[in-house]
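Homework help board

Subject: predicted structure for assignment chain

Our instructor gave us this sequence and asked us to write out the predicted structure in token form, then describe one feature. I got the tokens but I'm not sure how to describe them. Can anyone check?
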Amino acid sequence: MMNSSKSLVWFRRDLRAFDHAALHHALRSSQQVYCVFVYDTDILDELPKDDRRLRFIHASLAQLDAELRRLGGYLIVRHGSARDEVVALAEELGIGAVHAGSDYEPSAIARDLAVAEKLAARDCGFHTYKDQVIFEKQEVLTLAGGVFSVFTPYKNAWLKRLAAHPETLATYPVDAHAHTFAPAAGAPAALPALEDIGFTSGEPPLPAGMDGAETLFETFVSEMADYGRARDFPAEEGTSRLSAHLRFGTTSIRHLVRSARDMVQSGAGGTGASVWLSELIWRDFYAMVLSQNPHVVERSFKPAYDVIEWETGAEADALFAAWCEGRTGYPLVDAAMLQLNQTGFMHNRLRMVTASFLTKDLGIDWRRGERYFARQLNDYELASNNGGWQWAASTGCDAQPWFRIFNPITQSTRFDARGEFIRRYLPQLAQLDGKQIHAPWLVKPDVLAERGVVLGQDYPAPVVEHDAARQRTLERFAVVKKVVAKAEDEKDDANDD
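My token output:
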């Protein structure tokens, strides 16, 4: 029987050494605590060799290891299938219990079940703790005891539950229990370089680790009052830029929510604090939706929308490539896609615009866009990415109604009125004025030439005409009305029986 006095903390989406649920519980319940992170080949094998997120993770692990050493412990890093590596390390160290943060993605749940079974066969426990959300699974329910599918009533119930259970935001201290960290036998092994595991090294795409998160947060706090307005304008630095830190857990969601709530209550955050708190609640909402509706990974949240026939074939593939590469001829869409490709970041307003354009203007399946974002986004997490894409495609919960279709030109003139963001990523259009830059094809060719732009040469002509595309979308989605009407008729017939 393994020695239950020894525990192993498995770091995944929680790369920090403060306010850490699994680490806190392990330190309190054990005499010796080891820490491990696994570069999981089940995930890494699908990634490009120059992946920005791995550079972020690598830099964050260096900070985590340094902090653990300050506290008296150290970080063990393994490379292989996590299903095997965690179990092998537990056996090697004589571990009695493995502790980790809960994960809600179907593949992660399957992985954890497999690990738990292997550990149980070795008389080793496996314990998980809520740590990446405030409320999980079925903690926030309707008055009838059901799961929410609309955000606003979910948010109201979420806030009500938080008010009734303020202890939910309590921290999980680490420092006070640091004496139970297992010291290294001799000098701890150096963390592997990215080249050691087959990836390209380099600078992370944004300030990494716990220090990076706190620096970004402190800057954002000073600007939070204007967040409600500034967040919609991609040319401004109006967002927190903390999404990647939330994704990898280099900051604590409890810390952020606690700070936002306090600023709302004190008035220090102006109107922006409540808006930002709502954005944090959206994360919980989408995590809940995924955990309770795992079918959304492959299918529409609303089954009726699975009947939609998206565009396929060579022409659709060419249009998809144009969208991916920022060659649609719609400057705001193209600038947004170039921002994503070059930096791994895309402003949330632009995520909605580009997703709407792919699904509603090009008629291409939202799943193709979702998968592309999954490869490119620094802050990619399945729940939020899937939720956002299904919102834009009108197939998800609390989604944009299918007959409401973003006009990419209107979005451009409204949220990048002077074309500052567009010019940042499309310098070939820099000489166009604030009116011309949103729709270059409407500018006379001789005027364009004077400004150094020849359509089809310096910048592409539009790949679709928006009004015509809008009409095709209305026709495409009309089939949903028929399916819903048929289902309602069948329900009425059943009730009559």
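Reply (TA_rk): Your tokens look well-formed. For the description, you could write something like this. The chain has a mean pLDDT of 94. That's the kind of observation they're looking for.
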